[in-house]
Design brief:
This protein has 501 residues and is mainly alpha-helical. The chain has helices at residues 2-11, 15-28, 41-65, 80-104, 110-121, 136-151, 153-160, 167-172, 183-207, 212-223, 241-255, 258-265, 269-273, 276-298, 304-319, 334-346, 359-377, 399-426, 431-442, 451-454, 457-472, 475-495, and strands at 387-390, 393-396.
């Protein structure tokens, strides 16, 4: 009877209690690994216990809030500030839940566990734990966090909750456009698409010689552009060209806008091929691969075919913000390292699992800059209104879009340099090493020059904040924190003696 009463209280609870319940469900998923490995049952207990703790927090939230289903979450008519706080809470709840198994098992302290969870959910892939030292259930846990984080927590709960109130959260999480008439249909289409790609990618990996467990983990990580591996040597461990090609294919899928992928699925290839961001992606690859190839062949001493293989894989891996590798990038010429930093800043497609400033913003910046140069060179020449192609069709590059683009890029670069300087403050490293590491964190790429492995508490906190900013595109985090402070001030005022007079 008490159980039924508790269930009714939770069912009538509001948004936040349901978020915690959904997080509990996701944390319990890695238990599916246990039946296949006899030694994993003991480890599975930590995941079950973690799920129970989070579920208890969900029920407690429903009881204390007394929301009774009346809470309203931002919808289309609400501004970003009303959506930012729920989105930020959603991600912080998922991060806390993801850290619990590491903490309860005693494998990591609280800070390191939170770091691994942030890295997983934000699809960054930075780690300070050798994969070989972890049981398979924890490796699956990391890969599944990356897969779920790549899809987007709001997309996943959109299937369960749905409704117009979720649309504002969907936009605030970094998805600028839907692919279906409503969020629930959009969420289902995206999850179905990525699950299909996951099954196909896993099957191809197995076909080319990868063990089943490794195949599933790598497929989840590649699709989410996280780059986490079951081996310290990453994809280079397998030394297989077919496996590298499958990885490149999955990384490209993960870095492309969900709406563009749906056009391909529907057979609208011409319309998809016209999308400006997709074209720009392949232009970037076409430019950076030869540059990297030349530097590796001339200055790195690589043979041509080896240099081509390494360069192509590295460029695709970095521009998609995945971070898979075939070797040690730290040993490459400084010129190539500079190219990799530029690619990490660029990132992948809007509305995808990739980080960075996003290719569409870079494309708009290039178009506007080119036009302004033309105006200065030929003042009398008439300049037509600039346009770009979206999955939904052609759209103008108007003043508002240019303003938003420049604003985001400016703030992004500012955060990048601030984070870099903070890393040099907390760690005894060169400015270049700090720049590489924080660019990787902010761009959710996950490449490391070794700084993260030896980093102290201060540097890890800076990187965690950078990963969260990169995944939620900066403004959502800042506005969410501002909204949270506003609510705290409101609570203090309501409890102060003056407010009761």
């Amino acid at each position: 009877m008490k159980i039924i009463t508790i269930f009714r209280i939770w069912r009538n609870g509001g948004f936040y209690s349901k978020i915690l319940a959904f997080a509990a469900l996701l944390i319990a998923v890695p238990v599916v690994v246990a039946p296949f490995y006899k030694d994993e049952w003991l480890e599975a207990v930590y995941f079950i216990l973690s799920a129970v703790i989070v579920l208890a927090a969900s029920v407690l939230s429903a009881v204390l809030s007394k929301e009774r289903g009346t809470e309203k979450i931002a919808g289309r008519q609400h501004p970003l500030q009303e959506s930012a706080l729920p989105v930020l809470f959603t991600w912080l709840a998922a991060i806390a839940a993801g850290a619990l198994p590491f903490i309860l098992s005693g494998r990591l302290n609280v800070l390191h566990a939170l770091f691994e969870s942030v890295s997983g959910w934000t699809t960054t892939g930075l780690t300070h734990i050798p994969p070989e030292s972890l049981p398979k259930i924890f490796l699956f846990h990391k890969a599944f966090m990356q897969y779920s984080g790549g899809l987007g927590f709001v997309i996943l709960i959109g299937i369960a909750i749905g409704g117009r109130q979720m649309t504002g959260l969907y936009n605030a999480e970094g998805h600028p456009e839907g692919v279906m008439p409503n969020l629930r249909k959009t969420s289902r289409a995206i999850v179905l698409l990525y699950t299909s790609c996951l099954l196909i990618g896993s099957a191809l990996y197995v076909l080319f010689g990868m063990p089943v467990f490794d195949a599933v983990c790598h497929a989840m990580s590649a699709l989410s552009t996280a780059g986490s591996s079951t081996h310290s040597e990453s994809i280079g461990y397998y030394n297989s060209v077919p496996i590298e090609l499958v990885s490149m294919f999955l990384m490209l899928i993960g870095s492309v806008n969900f709406a563009v992928l749906l056009l391909f699925i529907r057979g609208k290839f011409r319309r998809a091929a016209k999308v400006s961001e997709l074209r720009f992606l392949f232009c970037v690859i076409a430019v950076f691969v030869p540059l990297s190839l030349f530097s590796l062949a001339v200055h790195g001493g690589y043979k041509f075919l080896t240099a081509l293989r390494e360069a192509a894989f590295a460029v695709v891996s970095i521009v998609t913000s995945t971070g898979y590798s075939l070797g040690d990038y730290a040993l490459w010429p400084a010129f190539v390292s500079g190219l990799l930093i530029l690619l990490m800043i660029l990132g992948g497609g809007t509305g995808s699992t990739s980080g960075g400033i996003k290719l569409l913003r870079a494309y708009i910046l290039v178009r506007v800059t080119k036009t302004n140069i033309s105006k200065r060179r030929l003042p009398e020449q008439r300049v037509l209104v600039l346009r770009y192609n979206r999955p939904q069709g052609s759209a103008p590059i108007d003043e508002a879009l240019v303003h938003d683009t420049l604003e985001f890029i400016t703030v992004y670069i500012g955060v990048l340099f601030a984070g870099t300087l903070l890393l040099t403050h907390f760690e005894d490293v060169t400015l270049m090493d700090a720049l590489f590491e924080f660019t990787s964190a902010l761009g959710t790429t996950g490449l490391s020059n070794g700084l993260t492995l030896r980093a102290g508490a201060g540097a890890l906190i800076v990187e965690m904040f950078g990963m969260l900013l990169g995944r939620l595109e900066i403004f959502t985090v800042f506005i969410g924190l501002y909204a949270a402070l506003g609510k705290l001030r409101g609570l203090r005022r309501s409890k102060s003696p003056r407010s009761s007079v």
